[in-house]
Amino acid sequence: MNIINSIMLNNKLMLFRISLRNLKLLYFNDNIRFSFINLLSYYLKDMDISENSSLYLFLHSYANHLNFKDYNFPNNNQIDNYLNTILNGYKEKLKTGNFLIDIIPFLGIKKYDFRIFFLFELLFIRYLIIAIDDRKNIKTHIINEDINKLITYFKLNKEENILFEKLKDILCTCNFKELGTQLENLIVNSNNKNLIELSDDLLKNVKIITNYISLPVYNVGVFATMSAGKSTFINALLNKDFIPSKNEACTAKITSISDNDSMEDKIFGGCSLDDNKSYIFSNEITKQVIEEWNNNDDIDHIFLETDIKYIHSKKGILVIHDTPGANNSRNEKHGNITNQFLESSKIDLFIYLINAHNPTTNDNYAMMNNVYEAYNKNKNTKILFLINKIDDCDFDSGETIEEIMDTVKKDIENVGFDSPIIIPLSADAARVFRKILKSEELTIKERGAFNTFYNIFEDEKMNLPSYYKDYKLHYNIDNSINTEEEHIIIKNNKYSTKKINDMLNKTSINLIRNIINKEINGSE
């Protein structure tokens, strides 16, 4: 059967979501969505759909709005063809342009168009699946809240508002429990093993995502002046390289990265377009894609979602916000973007990076003052000061880590921060050690850097976490990178993986990760 064959092309269902402000919705990639339409078509073909039913009214208005010529169906048997007509309509859209720009980004609705109906369809399918899983109807107040949130969020005009109210009435009068029972019976009685497996997989994924989007968001804002190693730090924290990291100020806009434990090594992303606030989404994110988005002046915000290793989404969702360096003399816009973000965002944890090689500058003082103003608005907010590039200091001349920390502490307290938490850090060393332990290919420069870092971190005074007074309270989680090999060969030299893991711990990156993890999930 063609419908079943089409469904089986996507038997590994992936549901993706991006959190924008307080709006939480499920997103489907185009192939998954096609499967859902086919699946819904298969389920609904034997149902009684009278001309007075809410489902009929929805399908009729849906097709009418999309200007399909063949949308009237005199009998119930044509429902299958009808939904396939809608499916083909979307496929035509896919041929004529970027499907993801045209269909999915209803977050940027500025006019009355078919994306509103697409949103309705997503809600309809979502409620239907939840009804099967929970064996109960969707409460009216939940539907009202969902629709009212959309009306308020999008600031819809009168015509759009009327349409949403009609769609809300359809959803509120639909008996999802009854429909869910019929769908479940169709699944069980189909005797089609593939269909049953697909449906079970669907319910499993919906349960995971439903639980995920119900969790509170824990926002971490990362700030620094130019060349403090902010992007390198974020890459080290994420355990993967996909934030552009160069000598020049390379972060041109806010990049928000959400942690999703169920995504494993996948990266899902989207970006907003500045002019009309429409959105692009992609489930094939590479470092090159991110660099292209970052260099595109029309894009004002990048959203990414991936599994951040060793940080768990059990009690909350970590969202890391990478901000532009505020002292880029070639682009004043960077500072404006960061300041606007500080003024408008709710941040639970500030992370402020300071270049150990040049900690006291006017730019750093100005930036720190801006962060202090935002931080001081909420006394429950925390802040970590990270002295990065500590490996770059000249300890042979008599300089010590304690002296550097004392200098930085005085600067921080002069701004107004009381009892600041200060941690020395070597983000680049952490990144290189991680790449070696994960058997990732090193560049010529990185191989040279490894030799330097290896020699530096053999020195016991470079156990950076020990300079943080409460580090033992946050150091009982094993974040070692597992490897089957006891030794690694680099330039014909043999190195112990255990020793490299120990050196990774000495960079402070795992300490910082554990502090964040405990802030979100508490003591586990």
From TrEMBL:
Keywords on record: GTP-binding, Hydrolase, Membrane, Nucleotide-binding
Transmembrane stretches, start-end: none
Localization per record: Membrane
Residues covered by the Dynamin N-terminal domain: 220-389
GO MF annotation list: GTP binding; GTPase activity
Cell membrane in keyword set: no
Main location: membrane
UniProt record, GO biological process: mitochondrial fusion
SUPFAM superfamilies found in the cross-reference section: P-loop containing nucleoside triphosphate hydrolases
InterPro entries xrefs: Dynamin_N, Mitofusin_fam, P-loop_NTPase
Cellular component GO terms held in the UniProt record: membrane
Keyword Membrane part of the UniProt annotation: yes
PANTHER family named among the record's database cross-references: SARCALUMENIN, TRANSMEMBRANE GTPASE FZO1
Stated name of the protein: Dynamin N-terminal domain-containing protein
Native species: Brachyspira hampsonii 30446
